[in-house]
Amino acid sequence: MNDPMMREEPDGRGLVEIALKTFREVVLPVVPAEQRFPALMIANALSVAARELAAGDPVDGAALAGLCGDGASLEDLCAAIEAGAFDGAERQAALRAMLWGLTRRRLAVSNPKYAVPVAVPHPAPLPTSPHPRRGEE
Amino acid sequence: MAGVISDDRRPRLEAWLAEQAGAGRVTLHEEGRLGGGAISLNLALTLTVTGGPLAGEHAVVLRAASAAGVAASLGKAEEFAVLRAAFAAGVAAPEPLFACTDPALLGVPFYVMRRADGIAAGHRVVKTDAPQRELARELGRQLGRLHGVRPGAPGLEALPLPEPSPALDCVRQFRAWMAGRAGHDPVLAHGLRWLTVHAPPKGEVVLCHRDYRTGNYLVQDGRLTAILDWEFAGWSDPMEDLGWFCARSWRFGRFEREAGGIADRADFYAGYEETAGRRVNPAAVAYWEAAAYLRWAAIAIQQGLRHSSGVEPSLELALTGRMLPEIEQDLLLHLDAVDGGRA
What we know:
The structure holds 2 protein chains of 2 kinds. By secondary structure, chain A is mainly alpha-helical. Helices cover 56% and strands 0% of the residues of chain A. In chain A, helix 1 (12-27) runs antiparallel to helix 2 (33-54). The radius of gyration of chain A is 21 Å and the shape is elongated. Chain B is α+β, with helices and mostly antiparallel strands. Chain B is built from 12 helices and 9 strands. In chain B, the strands form 3 sheets. A 5-stranded antiparallel beta sheet of chain B has the order 1-2-3-5-4. In chain B, strands 6-9 form a two-stranded antiparallel sheet. In chain B, helix 8 (238-245) packs across helix 10 (282-308), helix 10 (282-308) packs across helix 11 (315-321) and helix 10 runs antiparallel to helix 12 (324-339). The model of chain B has no long low-confidence stretch (mean pLDDT 94). Chains A and B meet through helix 2, helix 4 and helix 5 of A and helix 7, helix 11 and helix 12 of B.
């Protein structure tokens, strides 16, 4: 993450957020029908930009290292996938878990409304509750 | 308001139309642009034909190539040939009328087809309280008829046959369209690998629409009036079109109605089996649904790149490029449903 020497106030993220709010409240309601589609796209683009500027790196470094070793890059992971390293049942399950995390974090930036609800497993089984099995809804 | 067809081009176009129609004279009236327009220009016209077998008024669409097509698209002459083959097979494709490859007329190849009534917008088509079972059946029947068109059909000699098999040909194509992204995006890498490992062997190939989905057909009063957007058509495994139609990406919010957001798969499949002369193979459809997500991802990447590269700066194209996480979620959901997360 950037640590700029000069901090602007408001910063880019702040500007985008207030621009979006103003656009929605002041401009969008009076946009003629023919410009409505571009106007909605502008609001959408600003929303994505604001969320992107607020979000961290969607890649879980620990998960990536768990799959491919310390210091592995996404490119290394992709190459390993292509080479068949994750074809087996156990390896594929571990890969899918990482891919789900990555995709959910990216979706939280690009279109949070499209995300399906997550079935979150308990981190530790409770003595009186059944332990939910992976994949069961 | 100035029309799309410039004043100096209009008389030559009208003269060409008269020649094509075997008429004494044709005058055209512009009714406005149709559709999304990102890849092709669709212009609604009314033709007034004087003399000859087509004398009278005709509601038509003039469909022209845009300056830069996407890699997957057919040229307009090929698209016209596909429409002719589909129309001849009894499919509700718009009736193709005239095609022009001479750049002198409009600067780009184009063709003219009949204009059908109805709405195509996906979010409007799916907006019914009850599922649209008969519409789904009819869409299945139409697809069954289309899949009766085989290699060797007249006019389609230029369409390439998929090698070494439809599945592996698709994997190769998708990877190419992704322009290197599969080397950085592990979801894409995993999807392509999965398609490779699970690829069905080469079987029959038929004429597939390859963008058969809600949003690409017209509905008027709940009835199908025309199937649109044939620019991706080609020879492939018939189950590909079924997988594409049922992909989560085109349900327009009606996620529980797996056939195009309008009804259950069973209704769509039943219509297909009425006319296709083959049974639906659900495992094969599941494979091709996975392929659908990778294909759509590849197309979205291409559209995003058209913007980012500067070829066509466009907010719409830019936002399409940012749809990858949605497509990837749908892919992961589907793969988990197919194999429970494990191979």
